[in-house]
Amino acid sequence: MYGLIGRIKAVAGKRAELAAVLVQDGSMPGCLSYVVAEDPADTDALWVTEVWVDQAAHRASLQLPQVQAAIASGHPLGRAMAGPEWQFVELPTGHWPMFSIPDQLADLLDHLLPVEPR
Questions:
Q1: pLDDT tens readout for residues 32-84
Q2: Domain check: are 95 and 71 in the same one?
Q3: Please, what is the Cα angle at 91 between 89 and 95, to 5 degrees?
Q4: Which residue in 7, 15, 51, 83 has the most C-beta neighbors within 10 A?
Q5: Which residues pair with 4 in a beta bridge?
Q6: Domain assignment of residue 13, given as a range
Q7: Among 31, 39, 37, which residue's Cα sits nearest to residue 59?
Q8: Beta sheet of 45-52, edge-to-edge order
């Protein structure tokens, strides 16, 4: 199995609309569970939890016509995450990379958040 957990911040006041966009119709092959939940501590945030039969099924889902159409639509509620300042990085680990691959995580964070010389 392969799982993903992510927190998504909606445009202020638009959490319900973003949740409606994210909710799947169950037609993605290999997806065992896809849950969109409201963050009780932040009125604009959602948590998305996905479970797939394997990583290949998840990657294949990103090529499905309906997923590509959603990405291409540039839905205004997701535009904030489409800018050049965003980068998706996948780590070969479970839920706690700071325990399973601490050196690789530290290298990644160092690369993504360089410290400016004082």
A1: 988 889 989 889 888 888 888 998 998 898 888 877 776 666 566 655 555 55
A2: no
A3: 115
A4: 15
A5: 50
A6: 2-85
A7: 31
A8: 2-9, 45-52, 31-38
CATH code, 28: 3.30.70.100
Alpha-carbon separation of residue 71 from 32, 49, 61, 68 (angstroms):
22, 19, 12, 5
pLDDT at 25 over 70: no
DSSP secondary structure code for residue 85 in this structure: T
Over residues 82-116, the pLDDT tens digits come to 555 556 667 777 667 777 888 887 887 787 776 66
Q: Say what the pTM is.
A: 0.63
Do 58 and 92 sit in the same domain of this protein? no
Same domain, 79 and 93: no
- How far, in Å, CA of 77 to CA of 59, rounded? 23
